[in-house]
Amino acid sequence: MKYRKLTSSLALLVSLLPLTACALSGKAIDGKVLEEGTQQPIPSAIVVARWQGHLASWGHGKTVCYHVLTTTSDERGHFHFPAWKKDITEDWQKNIRPEDVLIDAYKPGYGLPTAPSQKREIVLLKPFTGTRGQRFQSLWRNFRATGCHAAGRSARNLYPLYKATYEESKPLAATDEEKRLLQIMRELTASAWIAEDDSRSTGEEQKLIKEFLRDHLP
Question: What is the pTM of this model?
Answer without folding.
Answer: 0.83
